[in-house]
UniProtKB/TrEMBL annotation:
GO cellular component: chitin-based extracellular matrix
Alphabetically ordered keywords of this record: Cuticle, Signal
Keyword Signal belongs to the record: yes
Gene Ontology molecular functions: structural constituent of chitin-based larval cuticle
Name of the featured protein: AGAP007042-PA-like protein
Taxonomy, superkingdom: Eukaryota
Residues in the signal sequence: 1-17
Organism (species): Anopheles sinensis
InterPro entries on file: CHIT_BIND_RR_consensus, Cuticle_Struct_Prot, Insect_cuticle
């Protein structure tokens, strides 16, 4: 009886460990499975600066540059399942990942009272040594850009 229980447990474990079929995504014989790298380059500097770029035969491409190893700019593009070419350009820095693309939602204009409040803070900044005036300036500039 104990050996049958062990055999059953092993059978269940093997079944659960088997690769699962991905529904709706053909894996063999598609452009995705046959894609090859058409172009690739990467450069790293001891200072932390780097850049890379690549392009594949199935229409995926990307590039990114960083001058300090912490902040970067780049873009990537791919053809979606609907046949449309999607392109995303981005900045990634201390303010986070900031993507831009024609297919991405756009931030609505900032309400006037919010911008005026931030400008009042800018005119009379707190005396807190941890207050980041540059960050406030960047936010004000970003919000002004939503006004058009």
């Amino acid at each position: 009886m104990f050996s049958k229980l062990i055999t059953l447990a092993a059978l269940v474990a093997c079944t659960l460990a088997a690769p699962q079929k991905r529904l709706g995504v053909p894996l063999v014989g598609t452009a995705e499975s046959q894609a090859v790298i058409l172009a690739q380059e990467h450069n790293h500097d001891p200072s932390g600066a780097y850049n890379y770029r690549y392009e594949t035969s199935n229409g995926i491409s990307a590039q990114q540059t960083s001058y300090d190893g912490a902040n970067s700019v780049g873009e990537y593009s791919y053809t979606g399942p609907d046949g449309v070419l999607y392109r995303v350009a981005y900045n990634a820095d201390t303010y986070g990942f900031q993507p831009q693309g024609a297919h991405l939602p756009v931030e609505p204009p900032v309400p006037d009272h919010v911008l005026k409040g931030l400008e009042q803070i800018r005119a009379n900044p707190p005396r807190d040594p941890e207050f980041n005036l540059a960050a406030l300036d960047a936010q004000i500039a970003r919000l002004r850009a939503t006004l058009g």
